[in-house]
């Protein structure tokens, strides 16, 4: 366990690694002991969710479901709630937000290279994609052999919201939770000012910003292709795949950032917007949320 806690101007900053991302908690308090307690609480919750829902582990419910070979698998209430949410996303997105599409990673490797898979290889995976093929009767899920689920598209946002819930139950101090760019603000800084959050420029991620957000309460999430993409013959292929075709969404924005009531809602809307391709901006305008579409 590697945790760091440093004093900044008017707040404590706690940092750790989880879910393959840098994580930080900014806490509007003078109390070092409270900051230490909340940092440990946050780390423990983030690692719990990572262990329980990561597709990379062999000792959790996701592994059991993905290796069930057609056998029904009962799940606990927390997992069932996430599956219900995933099903809702599938329905609201016209079948484009699909947690069974992770098997397409077998042919798509978004490593910045020009290795575009053959159409036949992509087509061979599609019979194993589609939430409509899944039998979900809470609390039992049944997958066809060869199918998988992947909660990576909502897991980090869920961890942010769960961490916020635990912090709020512990203390009413203002806080900003940031797990790899997915955020939730639990109240302002000590001086009453909102937290300042930069909106990254996908053309120069980590170096330039295209906007700024003042966040006191609510969630923020970003979807985009700044770090995961392929590039061939001048065409950039985003890692956002259309599960109905198996191919990157054409004319998708480079990045979409959304502010919503929860981080999970913001992440759902930003991903759905990316899946809309050229219609992303009109989709977001219809949702009546604050957003950046680049």
Report on the biggest sheet. 8 strands, antiparallel
- Helicity, in percent? 25-40%
Instruction: Tell me the series of helices and strands, N- to C-terminal.
Output: EEEHHEHHEEHEEEEEEEEEEHHE
CATH level-1 class of the domain at 61-152 = Mainly Alpha
Strand order of the largest sheet: 1-2-3-7-8-11-16-17
The CATH architecture name of the domain at 61-152 reads Orthogonal Bundle
Task: Give a quick set of tags describing it.
alpha+beta, globular, three-stranded antiparallel sheet
Give structural notes.
It is a single chain. The protein has helices at 32-53, 61-66, 77-92, 119-125, 152-170, 263-275, 280-287, and strands spanning 4-7, 12-18, 21-27, 73-74, 135-137, 140-142, 175-179, 182-186, 195-200, 209-215, 217-224, 229-232, 235-238, 241-242, 247-248, 255-260, 290-293. With 294 residues, it is an alpha+beta fold. Among the domains are: 1-55 and 168-193, no CATH class; 61-152, Orthogonal Bundle (T-fold). Strands 1-2-3-7-8-11-16-17 form an eight-stranded antiparallel beta sheet. A three-stranded antiparallel beta sheet has the order 4-6-5, with no helix packed on it. It has a two-stranded antiparallel ribbon with strand order 9-10. Helix 1 runs antiparallel to helix 5, helix 5 runs antiparallel to helix 6 and helix 6 packs antiparallel against helix 7.
């Amino acid at each position: 366990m590697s945790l760091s806690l440093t004093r900044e101007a008017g707040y404590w900053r706690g940092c750790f690694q989880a879910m393959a991302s840098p994580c930080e908690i900014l806490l509007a308090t003078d109390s070092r002991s409270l900051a230490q307690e909340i940092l440990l609480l946050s780390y423990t919750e983030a690692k719990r969710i990572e262990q329980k829902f990561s597709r990379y582990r062999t000792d959790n419910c996701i592994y059991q479901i993905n290796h069930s070979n057609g056998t029904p698998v009962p799940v606990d209430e927390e997992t069932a709630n996430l599956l219900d949410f995933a099903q809702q996303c599938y329905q609201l997105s016209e079948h484009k937000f699909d947690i069974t599409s992770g098997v397409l990673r077998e042919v798509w490797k978004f490593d910045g290279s020009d290795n575009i898979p053959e159409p036949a290889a992509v087509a061979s995976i599609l019979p194993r994609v589609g939430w409509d093929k899944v039998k979900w009767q809470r609390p039992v899920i049944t997958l066809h052999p060869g199918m998988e689920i992947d909660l990576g598209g909502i897991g980090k946002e869920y961890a942010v919201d769960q961490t916020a819930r635990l912090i709020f139950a512990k203390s009413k101090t203002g806080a900003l939770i940031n797990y790899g760019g997915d955020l939730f603000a639990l109240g302002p800084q000590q001086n009453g000012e909102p937290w300042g959050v930069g909106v990254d420029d996908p053309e120069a991620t980590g170096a330039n910003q295209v906007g700024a957000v003042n966040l006191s309460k609510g969630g923020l999430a970003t979807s985009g292709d700044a770090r995961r993409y392929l590039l061939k013959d001048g065409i950039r292929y985003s890692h956002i795949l259309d599960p109905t075709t198996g191919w990157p969404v054409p004319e998708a924005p480079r990045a979409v950032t959304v502010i919503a009531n929860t981080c999970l809602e913001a992440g759902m809307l930003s991903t759905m917007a990316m899946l809309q391709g050229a219609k992303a901006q009109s989709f977001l305008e219809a949702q009546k949320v604050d957003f950046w579409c680049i």
